[in-house]
Design goal:
The complex is a heterodimer of chains A (211) and B (277). Chain A is mostly helical. Chain A is built from nine helices and no strands. In chain A, helix 3 crosses helix 5, helix 6 crosses helix 9 and helix 8 crosses helix 9. Chain A starts with 10 loop residues before the first helix and ends in a 12-residue tail after the last helix. With 277 residues, chain B is an all-alpha fold. In chain B, helix 7 packs antiparallel against helix 8. Classes of the chains: A mainly alpha (211), B mainly alpha (277). The interface between A and B is large, with 61 and 53 residues.
Chain lengths: 211, 277
Amino acid sequence: MDGPSSEPISPARTETTLAPLTENARLVRAIAAGDPQAEHDFATRYMPPVRAMLTARLRNPDLAGDLKQDVMIEALCALRRGQIQDPEKLSQFVLGIARNCLNNYFRSNKRVASVELPDDIPDLSNGSAREEAEQENHALRAIESLDQLDRKILQMTLVDGLKPGVIATQLQINPDVVRQRKVRATRRVIDFLKRESQISPGRHIEPGRAR
Amino acid sequence: MTNCTGAPARQWLEQYVEGTLPENEAQKFEDHYFDCPVCLGELQALQTAQAVLRQHPVTVTAAKHVLAWPTNWNKMMSFGALAAALLIGFFAFRMIAHGPQQTGNVAVAPAQGPTRQAPAGPAKSQAPEVAQPEVEIAQLADLQPPTYNAPVLRGNETADAAFESGMKQYIAGDCAGAMNTLSQVDPSGPDGLAAQFYSGACRMHTGDLAGATASLRHIAEAGDSPYQESAFYYLAQIALAQSDAAAARRELNHVVLLRGDLEHRARKQLTEIPSGK
């Protein structure tokens, strides 16, 4: 799209310039037209990566969950107003909003809502409690299937944030052994969870696609 | 739609989750996984594991005593001295109470043969004079190629086509075909190391030990990878097949140091290699 960034996309214009319409363009156009299903699809697609990004940056899953809602509301409001310049850059658009919200949070150390919460926003809560519990059960089983030393190394890495050299000193083992075991344990946990989430009818680990 | 096989996740994931990835690379990874369900799935899996470990922490300090080398030497020395004194006292008491041991006394007498003539040593050396066949080092070599379990991949996720095809041949036992196909896998791609490893295993199985050594050495020296431990192990097997005990010990010691799945097998083989070799 060549138009200026502030210029909203009209459905008619999108149709003439993008033929055939891509999935992103269809989604953006439908949200601008007030289609609730499109908003639901948008939320389904972007809530997981936004939450993952905020969890990684904040290292606090609860706060990440709260901030994710702010990001999604702001993104949806912007899309309703047709504020996206290039629908093909929808992911970067959402990511940009997430980074802004994060920076605002870091600057003020509190959640800063830059838009009013609309009444008709789709359900932005996380998956059902049952699905989350199921997922955590899989993760617990994956971790329990690891060797005791591997578990310790994962804990010291992922939870305590320790470097392999420090872990090696504390466990009285070679730092290379720590690195090797960390790589292998991480891979095993990921593979286990991916396998389980594929078998399980509940929730898939990778929901990053609109249905 | 993405053709990603998870290579960016393999490159960046751990550091990203640990918060140690440089900012520019973290942003690149975010740009990528926002549109890549494969890498997003890996990130979510690791974050779930992180959350679970937070809720169910492993008691590191309790287990540390098992693993840690004793640091309180005064206590250790006192305990050792006490144990030694008790042992000396026990044997001194026996000497005084029973006098010197008589040959063939009570139940410890050997079944046959004069004890004075038998050299002191392990029971093995007192066995009848049948020449023990010396263990052939080459017989210890385990040249069977490792089994390959194809990973379960989700919908859009696909492995390198050449790798998949090569591994099908490998599973079917067609080593020559597998080597040929695996040579087409991009060595810098996500399946590059795996292709080189299984290709090396095929070479080893077909008797091309020099070629196998070259492939496996490259993997062993490439650093952390899921194949490093196995590479050292099979390098040891090749050394054994070539009756090079010193090299085999060196490679097996690498395996032991990595403390992985093959540690037990490596330790067992180390005890089986004749010491004089």
